[in-house]
Amino acid sequence: MQTRWYRLIASFALVAAVATGCSSSQSTGDGAANVKLQGSGASFPAPLYGRWFKEYSGATDGVKVDYQAKGSGGGIKDFIEHTVDFAASDAAMNDEEIAQVDVGVVLLPMTAGSVVLAYNLPELDKPLQLSREAYTGIFLGQVSSWDDESIAKTNEGVQLPSLPITVVRRADSSGTTFVFTNHISEISDDFRSGPGVGKSVNWPESDKFIAAPKNDGVTATIKQTPGAIGYIEFGFAEQAKLPMASLENKSGNFVAPSLENAKAALAAVEMPDDLRAWLPDPAGENAYPIVSYTWLLCYQKYEDPSKADALKDLVRWCLTEGQKSSAEMGYVPLPPNVVETITAKLENIQ
Questions:
Q1: pTM of the full predicted structure?
Q2: Contacts of 34 (CB under 8 A, 6+ apart)
Q3: Do 168 and 210 touch, CB atoms closer than 8 A?
Q4: Which residues form the signal peptide (predicted)?
Q5: For 246-266, what is the mean pLDDT?
Q6: Which domains does the chain have, with CATH numbers?
């Protein structure tokens, strides 16, 4: 209980810092004076965005940036309803969603990261290796015990407990869920025709499937539940010191989540003109199999020119100064060619 209160206090402190931080070291010009940018959405990049927006507000005269992490689905809803100035999503808006925004949409990938399978098996003496058969079976509800043969055969010499598997999944409409289900549907016909791909899907009905809100909620639930496994962003697992499974990739290798292995997965991705790049099952000997970009959602036209100018200045800062802290926070810095492409797209925001 005490730990939960400390976590809540820290979260409120971060929100307050992001919303109020402002000092005088750079300026976006007179047009951006006393501008407040309000955003909402994905929890996947929230720790990094929290740092970026606090640092930018502190370095820019007259601009405050406030971001509420409520999940990608919530951010897209706010964006469509025009209750925010920008939003964030790990699932780039689809054509149907974009069509609901009459002033146009500009999608900007800002960083990338891995979705990992974190677990709570404190008695294991070395990291868990999960084959495609094993982890798809777990999330289909077909593999229900930690000593199941599909897990045991890729973990020789490891004493696996005879303990029920508790699956922790997202309760909210989530881009992290989209990224994860997009990958599993790519490698499993049963999953594709069952739960399928989406920000929310129909998970197996079982008392061993527990729902928790946002990445931090899933992280906390895994940490508090012996025998649990769940999908979360790499940085959340690392910060919580949760063990992460090595997963079998497309080449048949077991790959641990790391920044280098995420970069290996992104290396072969070509960025299309609309900047909606997906890699459901990346190729490469060392490629970690579940990696995604995460997007900032901007309007093409703003009624207030000062907000358009401030938003573009914020994005330029995130693409330059902000990228320097990405790796430290557990995210993949954008390669220079992608930064150049995104910067050019800012001209579409008016």
A1: 0.87
A2: 62
A3: yes
A4: 1-25
A5: 96
A6: 2-113+292-348 (3.40.190.10), 115-266 (3.40.190.10)
